[in-house]
């Protein structure tokens, strides 16, 4: 059976930059894990980070996934990629992800990967592959996997669908680098869920998934009929991993309960 989690950064505030405020509700609704934003976690000093680790342990819900891999200011593509800074960032970020307990790090990071006007997209893809090779080598000793997230074109101008994400993973060709299927981005791009099985049949490995609806922006998945085909596509490839809700809510306590009920029946 698939596990259900929540990307807590979707409920972050100016005073709670990680979204820690959601943890009690996740425990109350029997969520399996939380997904932590790594770039925001990296902004904590060592004392605050250790306090966060202690709180997470005391409260009793594991962090199994990290998203928001890179901050927007650390550019991964273009004519002046700061490779030394990237290597230093990877060392500390992957170490912190490991201390959190993460098994997978999601590589979305639109701000960091977006390609500036005039720079060749094919060259940018090669730069992302080089970064992922670096990240793969640093993550492997911890047993951490890296999942490439395809983002819709309103957020990113590179790697916008699962086929492109699969191509990038195959270019990297490392056993701990694979792909993420995100229902929201697929829906925005009008990408058929049938692509999931077609790619899986061709060797694409899906390490993780995100889900949110496109009603009123990026919202909680509360309508079974709208998300059923996505969940069934995952089942068709034998996916038994994790699904993280990555949506916003103006009525969090109520909708997190409804989302758990909605997804719980479909995932079993």
Describe this structure in words.
There is one protein chain. The chain has about 270 residues and is of the alpha/beta class. It has a single domain, classed as TIM Barrel (Alpha-Beta Barrel). The protein is about 45% helix and about 15% strand. Strands 1-2-3-4-5-6-7-8 form an eight-stranded parallel β-barrel, surrounded by four helices. Strand 1, helix 1 and strand 2 form a beta-alpha-beta unit. The N and C termini lie close together (about 5 Å). The relative contact order is 0.14. The model has no long low-confidence stretch (mean pLDDT about 95).
| Category by helix and strand content | alpha/beta
Strand content: 5-15%
Total domain count: 1
Strand line-up in the sheet with most strands = 1-2-3-4-5-6-7-8
Uncertain runs: none
Question: Can you give the helix content as a percent range?
Answer: 40-55%
Observed structural traits:
268 residues, alpha/beta, TIM Barrel, eight-stranded parallel β-barrel, 15% strand, globular
What topology emerges from the helices and strands here?
Elements: E1 3-7, H1 23-28, E2 33-37, H2 38-42, H3 46-59, E3 63-67, H4 83-100, E4 104-107, H5 110-113, H6 121-139, E5 145-149, H7 162-172, E6 177-182, H8 183-188, H9 194-201, E7 206-211, H10 224-236, E8 242-245, H11 252-267
Parallel strand pairs: 1-2, 1-8, 2-3, 3-4, 4-5, 5-6, 6-7, 7-8
